[in-house]
Structure formats: structure tokens, C-alpha cells
Design goal:
Mean pLDDT: 82
Low-confidence stretches: none
Shape: globular
Number of strands: 0
Order of helices and strands: HHHHHHHHHHHHH
Helix content: 55-70%
Length: 337
């Protein structure tokens, strides 16, 4: 029986991978973060729901609990922004994953837009801090203000080095096209081309997604969840959990393409003849994305929370210096090789 043409649409398969597979990855990452932290601290971790699966479905039970809770909008808050910003936060965090290809033929964007996919994804991710600061302002209490101010300070400290790290790799590859970038990593991945840029990427993403030791803006110990203070029910799920983990997924997907070789060394043929080759390539990209996310959530179990002044000093003095050095290395390769 002939397969319907709509079922062979590469955009459909890309959407399914970005939708279904990314959801499974996010569920697994949250479960893994809880279990790793429990193991390090000699605890059991989530186990009450689905004990035979190690408590894997505990997160779904928690999500149902959040949805069933009463939505509370404080009297002093700016109601329109209070309601509108959490869904916008999640939408912007998820959008970059639809702007980059999962194989040479699996992509929602078509050329020439796909050529600028990584640039557009970074631009959207760098807008997230405006939403976070806006949520702190919309809550309208002192703890949220403090958290929002911390977020603004941290953003200015990591954004330039992180952008510099990607710019260094663009110089190394001599292109910004994601498909060409992956093609040039067939024999050696980008993290080995320019290790300094990869180090800056790791530190920058940890700061951008409030991973330990940089969970400063929303650290529960002294600012009561920071800019997310007073959010409850579905709004808390969208902001404090959904947006942060989804942003981590988008950053990790970009890292998998730029620094870990993307779908290389798999070389799927033209679509739709090589359907399974393209799906295997997309799965390989998702595996690399999952590995990066697993590293970032592992930091919660082994790293303490850094002080704000130490973090800012570290970023402006050392991370920015390493980023400039990475750019210098890429520029030397660009002009000399």
C-alpha cells in the first residue's frame, strides 16, 4: 500500500520529534534530577507513584496536582502581565527547538530561513530574561524585585560570553548554516575544534538556565523563588519548572548541533527515500541533547550555590576572558588556515 504524501512530510516528522520526543526527554530529565540528587544525599527520591518504574510517573502526578490547585492572583500584582507572561515564557523557551534541523531533511523552516536558524534561536533565547524580569515586576513584592534584579545582573554577565562562544564556532566553521556546521563535524566535533568556546558554552548555559552553582535569581533560601514568587497552580508549573527546563532543552539542542556534531557521522540520504536514516539522525541528535541536559541537572547534586558578587566577578573577569581567547583562536584559524 502506498504511503500517503502527507505522512511523508519532513515538517510533520520534525514536529513530532520536537513535540513527542522532547516531552519524553523533559520528563526523564526531571525524574533523573530528582533521583540523582536523592542518591547523592542517600535518599530514595520519587517512588510513591509507579514504584516499579522508579517513580518515573511521579512528575505527571505532580503536574496534575499543580493544575488542580486554585489559581491565586495577588491583589497588588499587575494582573494582565501576571497571567500573560508565564505562557509566553514557555512559548519563547520552546520556539528555538523548532528553528533548527534535526537532520538535513527534517526541519520546520525552509531555506533560506533555515540558514539563519541558529541565529534566530539564540535571539529568541536571549529575550527570555525580559520575560523573567517582567514576571518579577508583575508580582509586585520585594522578593520578586530582588530576584528580578539578580536575573538582570546575571543576564548581562553571561549573554556576551555565550554569544561570543557561538560566534567563535561560526568563525571556525566559516558558516552559520546548521546543516553545513554539522557536515564539518563528520570526523571531529566542535568541542574539540575549540575547547575554550565549549567551556564558555557550558558555563553560560548553566547561568542562563539557573543551574547550580548559579541558581541565584530564584534561590529558595533567601529570595523565596525570586521572580516566580506568588505564582501558584499552573502558573508556577509554567514558570518555575516548565520554562526553565524547556529553555535548557533548547540550549542543549543548539549545543548538540554546534559542539557535539549533531547527526554526524550519520549521513541520511534524500527524503523521503531514506526515511529511517533521517529518523535515526534525529534520534542521534536527541540523544546528544539528553546527555548535555543530564550533565547540567547533575550539577544540582554536587555544586553549592555561589554568591551573586562572586558569580558576576567570575563571569566578567574569567568567562569573558576565555570567550575572547576562544574568538582569537577561531580568528587565527580563519585567517591562517
Amino acid at each position: 500500500m502506498e504511503i500517503p504524501s502527507w505522512l511523508l512530510s519532513p515538517r510533520l516528522w520534525d514536529f513530532l520529534f520536537d513535540g513527542v520526543v522532547s516531552t519524553l526527554i523533559l520528563l526523564t530529565i526531571v525524574w533523573a534530577e530528582r533521583k540523582i540528587a536523592a542518591r547523592v544525599q542517600m535518599r530514595v527520591g520519587p517512588l510513591h507513584v509507579s514504584p516499579r518504574l522508579g517513580g518515573y510517573f511521579q512528575l505527571i502526578a505532580d503536574a496534575v496536582r499543580f493544575v488542580m490547585q486554585e489559581v491565586i492572583i495577588t491583589v497588588d500584582s499587575y494582573r494582565v502581565l501576571f497571567v500573560a507572561l508565564p505562557p509566553l515564557f514557555v512559548a519563547l523557551a520552546l520556539m528555538p527547538s523548532f528553528m533548527v534541523p534535526l537532520s538535513p531533511y527534517l526541519a520546520l523552516l525552509s531555506r533560506p530561513s533555515l540558514h539563519y536558524g541558529i541565529i534566530m534561536a539564540l535571539a529568541v533565547l536571549f529575550y527570555l530574561f525580559i520575560i523573567v524580569v517582567g514576571m518579577g515586576w508583575a508580582v509586585n513584592n520585594r522578593f520578586a524585585y530582588i530576584g528580578a534584579a539578580r536575573e538582570a545582573l546575571i543576564i548581562t554577565a553571561y549573554e556576551i560570553p555565550l554569544l561570543d562562544a557561538f560566534a567563535s564556532m561560526f568563525l571556525t566553521y566559516r558558516t552559520i548554516d546548521p546543516i553545513e556546521i554539522v557536515a564539518k563535524q563528520t570526523y571531529i566535533v566542535g568541542a574539540l575544534y575549540n575547547p575554550l568556546a565549549f567551556i564558555v558554552y557550558i558555563i553560560g548555559v548553566a547561568m542562563a538556565t539557573s543551574r547550580f552553582p548559579f541558581e541565584i535569581a530564584d534561590y529558595e533560601g533567601d529570595v523565596a523563588t525570586g521572580p516566580y514568587s506568588d505564582f501558584s497552580s499552573i502558573f508556577l508549573a509554567l514558570t518555575y519548572a516548565g520554562g526553565i527546563y524547556i529553555a535548557l532543552f533548547s540550549y542543549s539542542l543548539l549545543g548538540a548541533l554546534v559542539f557535539l556534531g549533531g547527526w554526524a557521522p550519520i549521513a541520511p540520504g534524500p527524503w523521503p527515500a531514506d526515511l529511517w536514516g533521517n529518523l535515526a539522525a534525529a534520534a542521534w541528535v536527541m540523544i546528544k541533547t539528553f546527555i548535555l541536559m543530564l550533565f547540567f541537572v547533575f550539577l544540582r547534586s554536587v555544586m553549592p550555590v555561589a554568591r551573586l558578587d562572586h558569580t558576576l566577578s567570575f563571569s566578567w573577569r574569567w568567562v569573558l576572558t576565555i570567550a575572547v581567547a576562544a574568538t582569537a583562536v577561531s580568528a587565527a584559524e580563519y585567517f591562517l588556515l
